[in-house]
Amino acid sequence: MGPVIEARGLTHAYPDGTTAIQDVTVSIDEGERVAVIGANGSGKSTLQLALGGLVEPTAGTVRYFDETTDAEAVRDRLGVLLQDPDDYLFNTTVREDLEYGPAQLGMSREAATQRVAHVAAELGLDALLDRPPFRLSGGEKQRAAVASVLAFEPDVLLLDEPFGAVDAHYRDRILKLVTDHEGTVVLFTPSLDVVADVADRVIVVGPDGSIAADGSVRDVLTDSTLLQANGLRPPATVTLFEGILDADDVPLTVSDARAYLLDELG
């Protein structure tokens, strides 16, 4: 399986001269689960926009599916969830927003209806489908935006903080839908507590917008020195067990920590 996204020497500077990302070279293979982490202001969201073809880089190139550098030519294969759900919800009703992607792909009415019904049910949107997006709460907008991206089943998901503004119940539902996705997933987040649930590889964006590290989930999440140097805190489970267990044994997820404690107490 080859790369679905390959960026080389990617740099983007805003009109005021601020360099958001610089000299980024990354490759995302088909079927990979990658988390891109970094402190607020490090350039994660700009990197997502550049990889998704939504901003023109100042320098460097992005190639898609080893076929083209034109993101618009493969737009129907890229599911880009922006950080602000208001940027994604633009139709008269939530239903129309969820149906928009499948309609653009020429999906049959029956298939589109089934797909929209599925994601709406999973994210508790059934009663909200005929409501205007502007009448939704922050958490409801977040769920609707996630559903809109998932509804057209893109090959690649580029998700910027999909768990923001939602409660624990819907966070878990979004997490399940993301992990069940059959394609490639790239998650952009400042929160490390969900990374091990989603990803098997982690890219760290440093404060200057360059790539500070690229490695396995365990290697990155248990490297407190690396994380602190880049303005990040280790996951709560790592902090809890650090100094008690070796890095190879530290639980990375809450479920793993629970299983470990139950085993020890049993």
Automatic annotation (TrEMBL):
Where do the TM regions start and end?
none
Membrane topology field? Peripheral membrane protein
The UniProt entry, under PROSITE patterns, shows: ABC_TRANSPORTER_1, ABC_TRANSPORTER_2
Which molecular function term from Gene Ontology is one that the record holds?
ATP binding
Q: Name one GO cellular component term.
A: plasma membrane
Per the record's keyword annotation, is Nucleotide-binding included, yes or no?
yes
Give the main localization category: membrane
Q: Which InterPro entries match?
A: AAA+_ATPase, ABC_transporter-like_ATP-bd, ABC_transporter-like_CS, ABC_transpr_CbiO/EcfA_su, ECF_ABC_transporter_ATP-bd, P-loop_NTPase
Where's the ABC transporter domain? 5-233
Task: Give the UniProt subcellular location, in the record's own words.
Answer: Cell membrane
Give the top-rank taxon of the lineage listed in the UniProt record for this protein: Archaea
Family per similarity comment: Belongs to the ABC transporter superfamily.
Q: Which PANTHER family match?
A: ENERGY-COUPLING FACTOR TRANSPORTER ATP-BINDING PROTEIN ECFA1 (PTHR43553:SF24), HEAVY METAL TRANSPORTER (PTHR43553)
Q: What does this chain do?
A: Probably part of an ABC transporter complex. Responsible for energy coupling to the transport system.
Record protein name field: Energy-coupling factor ABC transporter ATP-binding protein
